[in-house]
Amino acid sequence: MSDDKAPKMKSAYELALERMSGQGIEPPREEALSPEVRQRVAEARQKTEAKLAELEILHRDALRKSQDFAAREKAEEAYRHERRRLEEDRDRQIEKLRRG
Predict the structure, then answer these.
(1) Is 16 within a domain?
(2) What interhelical angle do 69-99 and 35-65 show, nearest 10?
(3) Do the beta carbons of residue 20 and residue 27 sit within 8 Å?
(4) What is the tally of structural domains in the chain?
(5) Mean of the per-residue pLDDT values of the chain
(6) Residues 6 or more apart in contact with residue 13 via CB below 8 angstroms
(7) For position 82, what pLDDT does the model report?
(8) 3-state secondary structure of 50
């Protein structure tokens, strides 16, 4: 059986673009960006992904070592907060690059 008939899984980016469209927000046009800006946007994304991966590894290691439920809950909340902060920083940086 061919995979051509299987439904295509959408990326988080594609889903976000659909939500934006549904809210009447014009999606960003990457083709309008210069190659240099696109490269800098890609670098910002890569740096954030690396930081997020490191954060997750350290978080999982800390959870594995901790037996205290309250400490684990506190660590989980700190992890979510830091993850959200890194993602928001990335989004602000990308928006700044797009605006020039």
Answers:
(1) no
(2) 180
(3) yes
(4) 1
(5) 85
(6) none
(7) 96
(8) helix
Structural domain contains residue 51:
yes
How many H helices and E strands in the chain? 3, 0
Spatial CB neighbours of 52, under 8 Å, sequence gap ≥ 6 = 83, 86, 87
Q: Output the pTM of the full model.
A: 0.66
Residue 11: inside a domain: no
Regions of the chain with pLDDT less than 70: 1-8, 10, 27-31
On whether residue 46 sits in a domain, the answer given is yes
pLDDT at 35: 87
Which pLDDT value is given to residue 2? 45
Six token digits for residue 63: 């959870």
> Rounded distance, CA 56 to CA 87, Å?
13
| CA–CA gap between residue 79 and residue 86 (Å, rounded) | 11
Calpha distance 52→57 (Å, rounded): 9
